[in-house]
Specification:
The chain has about 375 residues and is α+β, with helices and mostly antiparallel strands. Among the domains are: about 140 residues, no CATH class; about 110 residues, PDZ domain (Pdz3 Domain). Helix content is about 55%, strand content about 20%. Strands 3, 4, 5, 6, 7, 8 and 9 form a seven-stranded antiparallel sheet that branches. A two-stranded antiparallel ribbon has the order 1-2. Helix 1 crosses helix 8 and helix 8 runs antiparallel to helix 9.
Amino acid sequence: MVLNIIIAFFSIIALLIIHEFGHFIMAKRFGIEVKEFGLGFPPRLFGKKIGGTIYSLNLLPFGAFVKIPSIEGGDEKNNKENYQKLENIPVWQRALIILAGVVSFWILGIILLSIVFSIGTFQSISDEETGPFVNPPKVQIVAVSPGSPAEEVGIKIGDTIRELRIADYGLEIDKMKGVQEFTEKYKGEEIVLTIERGKDVFEVLLIPRILPPEGEGAMGVALVRITEKSYPFFQALIKGVETTINLTQVIVVGLVEVLLSLIQGKGLPPGVQFMGPIGIGSLVAQAVQIGVSYFLNFIAIISIYLAVFNLLPIPASDGGRLLFLGIEKIKGSPVNQKIEENITVGFSVLLITLMIWVTIKDIVRLF
């Protein structure tokens, strides 16, 4: 479990490093001086200057940074010199430097999803669909209702049901219909579920509800029938691109629905909750435990989420920087630097406060 947590932590950090590397590469591409590209945050442990840029390793392992004086700030002498030079760079080039960090998330998503499709990924199929399959079909749990019998006995998203048993009668499960008919027949009686979670196989005792809440089943789970499929490299790459586009659309639509619900005073839609680094890290650790494909797929999804959220026109995000560039393009002159800094700092404080609140909720929920 400790190893899974470590892998989860450094996976998230790797996403942040790749993001900053995108800014770095595009800045270099346009001939802009990059004072420093750092892994982690100061104090500095090690640094070497190559081609005018200091490549550093820093003590606090919480991401990376690119130090471009006109964008990120810097000492007054160098900032003045480089700012005058950068004033002549078109707005579109500065926008591309900002966008490069966001695009790096999408590129990473495509790469990871292509790998997943190439090595084999579980896909949902109907009960009626037959082989040939790489592996026999499984019935997997994709949602667990709060307060349900399934949640009470520790069943988690990603678990697969291998067998249902009561007394001397057992049923091997490879179709959703089998689970539904079995739990319907034995509602109110204690049944034994054989659960597969990653490499672990164990049993839990559960009593299906006789009168479950509307929209929920007797156990309180949502099921999908899955099987593993793999694709040739080029087909996997196409699938990776298609899936990245589809996930982006789903995330954008979901985000719009959440924002509209909040604006209308309805609160968060059912099933939606904010999650901070600890909550996300916990899910990544679970994905590591389930298997390589699940892990890579989940990291790809996080990467795509980060791409979308970074494009929001909020100061302190890449989208906020693009907003200020748009204003500069319209009015023909840069936004007053002091005003931009004050707005950015204000929103940064709000975001940090929100992150602390979400983190506290994550800790309470997990522990």
